[in-house]
């Protein structure tokens, strides 16, 4: 199953190109240099990078969710990747989502996370959890009749939000000419005169 990213001329409302990407695409963020756009997905950890100079092409970009809360030796998936945002200097891409299986006291099948991609080389900012990283055993787990290192949780609190969402009805626009982009039938951003819009009916996380 695939989704699509489609560029739309904002003056004529005509589609100029369309490209296949993995299923459930949601947020689109265009790099400040206009070279590429990043697409988040509702049902996977990887992002899609769509090249915008020349013929559009899409490729996956790995962004491990909550690596410091990942059980050692494992790779997690992610969900609820509704939106992303660039830092003011364009060097970091922030992606809010739910890391499925991330460790934490009272974690609900994982934990909310904001993962950061360095746009200079499309590498994640946070390293993977290493052997001997600071951890503690949650009181609720200490009474279990077996010893499992995966029950140890990072010695930090969980994120102060749950189930990430895009801000309801909000949109952010940037400079340049006259094209826009849509993903999976929902308006998102653009390779030039662009914007990022929340899915219809969504609301900010509480």
From TrEMBL:
Location of the region described as Disordered in the Swiss-Prot/TrEMBL record: 161-206
InterPro entries: N2O_reductase_N, WD40/YVTN_repeat-like_dom_sf
Amino acid composition bias (Low complexity), ranges on this chain: 164-200
Protein name per UniProt: Uncharacterized protein
